[in-house]
TrEMBL record, chain A:
This is ABC transporter ATP-binding protein. Keywords: ATP-binding, Nucleotide-binding, Transport. GO terms for biological process: putrescine transport. Residues 11-241 form the ABC transporter domain. Pfam families: ABC_tran, TOBE_2. It comes from Tabrizicola oligotrophica. The lineage of its organism: Bacteria, Pseudomonadati, Pseudomonadota, Alphaproteobacteria, Rhodobacterales. GO terms for cellular component: ATP-binding cassette (ABC) transporter complex. InterPro entries: AAA+_ATPase (IPR003593), ABC_SmlMolc_Importer (IPR050093), ABC_transporter-like_ATP-bd (IPR003439), ABC_transporter-like_CS (IPR017871), Mo/tungstate-bd_C_term_dom (IPR008995), P-loop_NTPase (IPR027417), Transp-assoc_OB_typ2 (IPR013611). GO terms for molecular function: ATP binding; ATP hydrolysis activity; transmembrane transporter activity. It comes from the Bacteria.
From TrEMBL, chain B:
It comes from the Bacteria. GO terms for biological process: transmembrane transport. Keywords: Cell membrane, Membrane, Transmembrane, Transmembrane helix, Transport. GO terms for cellular component: plasma membrane. This is ABC transporter permease. InterPro entries: Bact_Polyamine_Transport, MetI-like, MetI-like_sf. It comes from Tabrizicola oligotrophica. Its main location: membrane. Belongs to the binding-protein-dependent transport system permease family. CysTW subfamily. It is a multi-pass membrane protein.
Amino acid sequence: MTFSDDKPTMIEFKDVHKYYGDYHALRGINGTIKAGEFFSLLGPSGCGKTTLLRTIAGFEGISSGAVLIDSKSMEGVPANERPTNMVFQSYAIFPHMSVAENVGFGLRKDPRSKAEKARAVEEALEMVGLKGYGGRAAHALSGGQRQRVALARALILKPKVLLLDEPLSALDKKMREHMQVELIKLQRQVGITFILVTHDQEEALVMSDRIAVMFDGEIAQLADPETLYRRPMSKKVADFIGTMNFVPATVLSEAGGQVEVEAKGLGRVMLDATIQPPIKGESPVVGLRPETLTLLYDDQKATERETEGVVDEVIYFGDMTYYDVYLGGTDVEVRLSMRNVPGRPILDVGSKVRVAWSPSALVLFR
Amino acid sequence: MKSPSLRIYAIAYLVFLYAPIILLPLFAFNDSKVVQFPLKGVTLEWFRQMAGDAQLGIAVKNSLIIALSSSILSTTLGIFAARASTRFRFPAKGALMGLIMLPMVLPEIIVAMSLLIVLLAIGVKLSLFTIILGHVLVCTPFATAILTSAFQSLDKSLEEAAYDLGETPLSTFRLIILPLVLPGIISAFLICFTISIDEFIVSNFLGSGEAILSVYIFGQFRFPAKVPSMLALGTILVLISICLLTIAEYFRRRGIAKTGGKDTGGFL
Amino acid sequence: MQNNGLLARIRRSEGASGLAIISPTAFYAILLLAAPLVTVMLFSVLTSENGHIVWDFSLSNYETVFTHPVYRAIMLRSLMVSMLVTLATVLLAYPLAYYISFNVPAHRKSMWLFLVTLPFWTSYIIRVSLWRVILGYNGVIDSALMDLGLVGEPLNILSNGVMSIVITLAHAYAPFAILPIFVSLEKVDRALLEAGQDLGETRLRTFWRVTLPLSMPGVIAAVLIVFIPTVGDYVTPELIGGGKVPMIANMIESQLLKQRDQALGSALSVTVMAIVAVVSIIFLTLNRRFLGGQK
């Protein structure tokens, strides 16, 4: 799942700042996006992800710093001259034109003959699964079809970078999941760099080669989905992506790349200090994802460590059951998830349980 | 809440509202020199008299010149104002827009008189041209209001999309914005035309005595003998206004449908 | 270099583009509206001599406007007539707006609104003139009533100048009052009314305690929209009142064009503007109070 580092750089941000009057929207963005990468800008609304996307497109100027596309500075290059095309959140389908006219809009100044352009339009429509829709009126299309037209319209110009501004947010859940897969396939097929803006962490995890998580105009972490999920660099990132249990802890000693921690309810544990997030001066906690905790049944033995607990809440989800468990006679509660397999009973509130866990899954935030 | 009394009231109100308009054709075809009941019989005499009125012909021609020029000018000025106010933030925006819209909330006599004072002071001769100047002032706020709602219902990302696909700001305006606000432009033009034809105060004070339709009608109603032929004229004018208004409303709705917006009510 | 960059930035900035685009319209309004209004204000504190303006500052024009019995009387009458017209128009319009908003089915509403606004777009001059024919001695109403044997002799409503003016203007400005009230009634959350009745209120009390207060912004807008143009109405007093019941507008015309006293005419104009401004501010403040009180 990791993305090969030998690909050339397509986009580079060099200390990008953006002010709207007094409001500091982008606060020193640095980072690179590789050619052919499916890259996501993920964050809550107002974090600056759309602004950053629009600085690439050229709709937003920057206050200082530089945006480079294919090693060329984009300063002073207007949106209509940049090698990028965009799929808008509202799709921005021109309502007074047919589907074919929409898709072929960007070819107006193309020197090719009419017939060749028509063929290009037909090919683009076929690529997004809308073969034969060219003659339809654009305003009569469904949401999913509009989305495809917007994609075809942008891709027909063979841009170096395709920018997607929350393209799936207007679709219902089923359609959204379907389009996620289609977009991944499409990206592999055309090999163009895709940059996706989304506030949906699941969507970002599913689709992206790499993700930049943004908070308050800054990139909090830039990594591949697995690293982001397993080794979040801050509590905020950990909390935004998936669920994480936080257990209060005390750092006992640190030497030789190892750090010894006393976690409440879990006991003493040695952690690899080199893979832990940088120290920020917060009161230390260790984080565990729910699926890294397992309930032990009958005479099952933990492979690494185990802790006793009491079930406080049971949430049944069909294929899964979530348990909220008090750890080892403390008031520390963690959530863990168990797959429901035949022959495994759902436990009752108040049941005494044993919880297995692995020190390597712990993340130390301090 | 169903109450028959409210319904009766509503119908009575409509009768009050439409009474003068219904009386127009009634007495325009009535074979009597005096406007009173009972009706006497049908005649086309008053339409004939109206058609033979040379002075009225001149008035109609002058009014058409004024209405055409001032509606073209005010619609153009309205496009600039509406575009600027819906898409840009700029210094003194509130003050400038307030000034442009001011004639809507200022008694018309003030608009006319203050303009007259200045025109007289700097020695401009009154003519059809000065009437047009005044009409543009009166019509522009209406055009701006209609066009602002047309420009507002335009999704900003449509422009950005065209720009993103390689068009310049100017060609984007021509290819995307103009076709989409065209219904608004037509309806603004028709409304301005109607207002200008009907306008009395500016036409009366900023003209130099040329026959203007509204001023001419105003004058003729003082002579009882002329009233029936004025009613005939009124019948025709009402028919024309209703046609123009229906066309304007059609275009306004089509514009909203085109840009995929929701209808938020009629004019005003 | 520095200069160059700055210039380029201004040219590219949003503010400059906006100003550039609005400039034709703004320029027109400044030249033909703002400048004349400023001139009128200036003239109002100067002196007229034989139809010319003399650079002699004085407030005597305003003194005349406020103390001279004729001007005072006309000013007060104008105000009174406008207020009567406003009151009549808004009171008559409210039940209709209520009917359209609450009793007319949704798909018929726009047809009703169209019906209500249509008369407004037919010639104002003709509508006003028609009332003269309708209300006049032996006119449409008189002859119809006598024909039906309801009255023995002509009522000649037209001879009652103020009443005729009120009827005519209430007719002319009806849509201006109906539309804003309708819009505010449409915004009233229907669930609130059901809640009111659910809590045991009668319909009338629900109307008094919920609907009416919530529709006040529309009523206030209607008051302003009707009051402002009627204060400055010229045609109706001239045609209906037969010039016997002059209002401010007629007086301004007479001062400026007939007496050629531009200074006094200007002072009258400025006074009208001031009245309009004061009334607007009062009602807008009221409106804000209403909105504030609801929060």
